[in-house]
Amino acid sequence: MKIIGTAEGKKLYVHLIGELDHHSAKKTRDDIDRLLMNSYITELTIDMKDVSFMDSSGLGVILGRYKILAERKGSVRICGANRSVDKILRMSGIYSLVERS
C-alpha cells in the first residue's frame, strides 16, 4: 500500500494505492494518523480510485479515522472507489457515516 497525503489548511487529502487488507492495514492506519496529528485538520478525503482490493481490515482503517474526525466535529469523504470496493463499503453501511463522492 502506498499512501500520498496532502494537507491544506483544515483539509487532508489521502490517495491510497494498492491493497487495503490485513497485511497493510496497520501501516496505513499509522501513516494516516501521523498526517492527522495536527488537530486543526477537520476534513479528510480518502481517494480510493487506485485501491484494487479491500477487506474488513480496510473498513476498520476507515472507521477509525472517522472516529478521530468525529471527535473534532469533522468529516470524512470517500471518493473514487471501484465497483468491488464500493460494494464492500455499501454492504458495510459505512456510507451512513462518511460522505461518498
Question: Mind explaining what this structure looks like?
Answer:
- This protein has helices at residues 25-35, 56-71, 83-92, and strands at 2-8, 11-20, 43-54, 75-79, 99-100.
- It is of the alpha/beta class.
- It has a 5-stranded mixed sheet.
- Helix 1 packs parallel to helix 2.
The average pLDDT score comes to 96
**Helix coverage percent:** 25-40%
Main pleated sheet:
5 strands, mixed
Which geometry do the CA atoms define?
globular
Named CATH architecture: 2-Layer Sandwich
When the domains are counted, the total is 1
* Rg from alpha-carbon coordinates: 12 Å
In total, the number of strands is: 5
For the record, what is the CATH homologous superfamily label?
A: STAS domain
Poorly predicted parts: none
- The end-to-end span amounts to 22 Å
Features:
single chain; 101 residues; alpha/beta; Transcription Regulator spoIIAA; five-stranded mixed beta sheet; 36% strand; globular
Brief write-up:
With 101 residues, the chain is α/β, with parallel strands linked by helices. 37% of the residues lie in helices and 36% in strands.
How are the SSEs placed, and which strands pair?
Elements (H helix, E strand, L loop, with lengths): L1 E7 L2 E10 L4 H11 L7 E12 L1 H16 L3 E5 L3 H10 L6 E2 L1
Parallel strand pairs: 2-3, 3-4, 4-5
Antiparallel strand pairs: 1-2
